[in-house]
Each structure stands twice: as structure tokens, then as C-alpha cells.
Amino acid sequence: MTSLSSGDCEQGERISARAWLFSGVEPIRRPYVAWGNTRILRAFGFSLIALSSIVDPAKLQAAEPRFRPALIGNGPKALVNVINTRKLVEKGQRDGLLMFKCYINRSGEVEYSFIYRETAGSKLLKQEVGYALRGCRFIPAIYNGEPTDVLFTGTVVFSVSNGKPHLRVYANQSNDDLKRGNDFIAPQVVANTVDIGRYALAAMKVRAYYQNGTVELSTTVDANGNQKDLKVILEDPPGYGLGAVLRDAYAKAKWIPGFRNGRAVECTFDYAEFLKTWAPGIYGRGSW
What CATH number has the domain spanning 191-287? Predict the structure, then answer.
């Protein structure tokens, strides 16, 4: 492996965005499939060679970096190994893609998760990934040299070729990077730097009117994890002020920077928040 050396990061193992393994699936249609997921699926081709390009957790921990994003890992409880691809194939799941967000605590456990933007026919895949997220373990994130809680965004791509399942799990939701299979880990927000009070206010707004809400932010984070720009690019439903409330909630957010080809980089990316009328709490354990 090559070494990681960029910005304020210490020398250590190269951080890889991809966790590839054999698996299988299909899709379900939702109102926010707005990122061209079907085109992404076509771009992959799905006649894939199963690979494993995952970092050795022991070496990463020994590096003691200033920053390290939460990583999927390759142990027996890693997400890529917990998803039961054989069962998916047996149940008839075909090609599919979905995106997810999860709260990962400093021990690498998933506190809550939310799955969205799944392609049509991916119901079985969504169920299996939901189960897997409840029981998997991530390599914890590090911020300023200390383990920390983060919000992780990822993408699961499943295909079946010649009767064999193939599974890819990416630590980003960028259309271009997914199409190309790039080694890119999207920035991860440090959970305790988000103003939860304002976040809760947005949640109360949608619950008061029995509405589910979606806000999409365009965010720029530099190679040191500093937030440089934050804009609301989507607010649904409009007229409730959800975008303004969530922009304020993230106004002072700190991030673990994005990593491209093992190096911390500045990047601009879209970041979605979903507000549910029936959600039991902002950070309650479970999955949506």
C-alpha cells in the first residue's frame, strides 16, 4: 500500500474508499431518485471482477493520524461481509443500487441509519442492507487525533452476473465517482458539531404539518476539514423554512476531510438531510 501524506494528515496507510466482494440484488422506486442511479448502474456494466481493496485496521490505528474517516473495513463484522448476498440471489434480487447514511459512534457501532434513493426493484436489497447496518462494525473515525462520532454517507451497488452476486460498497454518493469506481471517501461531519437544537426545530416543523421533509445542501470542505461554503440547493416541501433551519444547524459544523486516492483533498459535494414525521428521535438507535 502507498502512504497517506496530505495537509495535516500524518504518515500512514493509504485510505481506500472501496470495499468490494461477491454478492447480489434488485431495486424499489422512491420520490428522491434524482441522481441518475439507473445511469450509474448501466455505467458499472455489472460484469465485475470481485476485488478487495480494504485497509488493514491495525496499521491504520498504529498510524495515529490527525484525521481518519470512518471506514468499512474487512473484518467479519464489516458491512461488506455482513450483507448476505447468497440469500439475496436465492430470493431473486437482481441488479440494484441504494444510498444510505448512518451515525457511527467512536466505537464503530451504528447508532442509526437511513436508506434512500434505491433503484426500482431493490426492496430485498434495502431490507438486507438495513439488517446488516444494525449489526455491522466500522473502523471508527478520528478527528484531531481522537476517536469521534461521525455521520457516514455511502452507496451499495449489487449485481448478478452468470448467476454470481457482486457487491460494492462505496464511502461516497458522487455520481461521477460512482460511475468511474474512483477511490474517494466523502467528507464526514463530526456529529457533535451540528447544532442539534436547530435540527430538532426542523424536525418539529415537518411533524406539526404531518409532512416528511428533504433538504439538500451543497457544501465545500477543505483538506483540513474546515467548512468553506454551505448553500441550500433543494428544499421539499417548500414554504416551511426547513432549508434555513438546517443551514443554521450546519453553520459551525466541522468535518473529517474527503480523501481521494488516499490523500485529504478539498471538495464540494451535495449532502442530503431527511426529516420524518414518525422518526422516534434525532439520534435514536435503529434504522429508517
Answer: 3.30.1150.10
